[in-house]
Structures are given as C-alpha cells and as structure tokens.
Amino acid sequence: MATLEERQYDGDQARLVLENEAFASALADMKTEITEQWKQSPARDNEGREKLWTMLKLLDKLEATLRTTLETGRLAKLELDYQQTLAERAKELIGWN
Fold it and tell me: b vs e for 27-60, b when ≥16 Cβ sit within 10 Å of the residue's Cβ?
C-alpha cells in the first residue's frame, strides 16, 4: 500500500492532469466525437455502436480514476497535516521546542 506521502504526490499529479487545459479539451473533444459517431451510426451496426459505447465508458473511467486519485491525495494531505499537528502538540507538552 502506498504511503501517505505517495498518495499525496499521486493526488497532486492527478490534479495537474485534470486542471491541464489541453487534457480537458482533448477529453471533451473525444467524448463529443464518439457521441456524434454513435448518433450517426446505423441502428443495425450493433458491434460498432458497442465499441463506441465502450470507448466512451473508458474515457469516463479514466476521468473517474484521476478524480479518485485526486481525492485520495487530498485526504492523505489532511492526514499528514493532522499527524504533524499532533507531533507539534506533543513536543509542546513535553517541552521540546
């Protein structure tokens, strides 16, 4: 299992990807293109429509995975901050300044 620091780092990296304008634009463009292809595909092309649906779901999964990594990183940061606060309080109580 990843350490809190590793999870925070991964979360920071996921944030950079999700906030990247080029990535966001590419993701939106791909979703739009796949949706348009699906709308224009003949109803009898079940296999083609199924592949388009799968592609769309994979893009959704990619985005969801990045968002989960981001949130995990945020929680890891909160835990690290909490641990640091506890350590600082313990030092104050003991008199280690």
Answer: beeeeeebeeebeeeeeeeeeebeebeebbeebe
Domain range for 17: 4-94
**Structural domain count, the chain:** 1
Give residue-wise pLDDT tens across range 40-97. Answer: 999 999 999 999 999 999 999 999 999 999 999 999 999 999 999 988 888 888 877 6
Q: Which of 55, 51, 15, 65 is nearest to 32 (CA)?
A: 55
How many angstroms separate the CA atoms of 53 and 42, rounded? Answer: 14
